[in-house]
Design brief:
Length: about 200
């Protein structure tokens, strides 16, 4: 069938479908515009200039561009700080770096959403030989298992988080290789509020 042989009804249906979803595309365009303005404001507030893109020795000493990029990301994502590096090879690498930065020997990392995904278990030291893991360096681990229906056990989380050695709480949104559904933003918010109560 040639394109020119298509019936007018097909074009009418296509136009009808486009008109029906137009509000969704307009909403996406508004979000994109707001995010673009947020990024541009962060660049301006942090005085990003051509100097930020200059080459360095590779050692990172006085690498203004790297420091400015961290500030830009922190502002865009409304965080206290940011660490943006091409050297992070995967999510586990980035998470491990953050955990090692936050925790010290004697601290406890509490997993509020059951057993973390497999590669993070090795980094924590709850599986594998644990050499170089958090456990290897004296950082403890505790976990609150999920309820039978796969939802977070809020009361058990509060009880576990009240331990004075707990200094960080891990919430794994994705299901990893498990059978449970991913947690919603509302469920994560509920866990965060519960932890902050204690």
């Amino acid at each position: 069938m040639k394109f020119s042989d298509m019936k007018p009804q097909v074009f009418a249906l296509a136009q009808e479908a486009e008109n029906e979803i137009r509000p969704q595309f307009e909403r996406i365009d508004r979000i994109a515009q707001q995010n673009t303005l947020k990024v541009m404001q962060a660049f301006q507030d942090n005085k990003v200039s051509d100097f930020c893109f200059a080459g360095t020795t590779g050692y990172g000493y006085d690498d203004v561009g790297r420091e400015v990029l961290d500030k830009v990301y922190a502002q865009i994502f409304c965080t206290e700080a940011a660490l943006v590096r091409i050297g992070f090879v995967n999510g586990t690498h980035a998470l491990s770096t953050a955990l090692f930065a936050m925790l010290k020997p004697g601290d406890t990392l509490l997993s509020a959403t059951g057993l973390p995904y497999d590669t993070l278990r090795n980094a924590i030291g709850i599986e594998g030989d644990c050499h170089g893991s958090l456990r290897f360096y004296g950082i403890n681990y505790a976990q609150v298992n999920l309820r039978a229906d796969g939802s977070p056990d809020i009361e058990a989380i509060k009880k576990a988080a009240s331990d004075k050695s707990v200094t960080a709480v891990l919430i794994q949104r994705s299901r990893g290789y498990g059978d449970r559904p991913a947690f919603s933003a509302e469920q994560i918010g509920e866990i965060a509020r519960a932890v902050k109560e204690v």
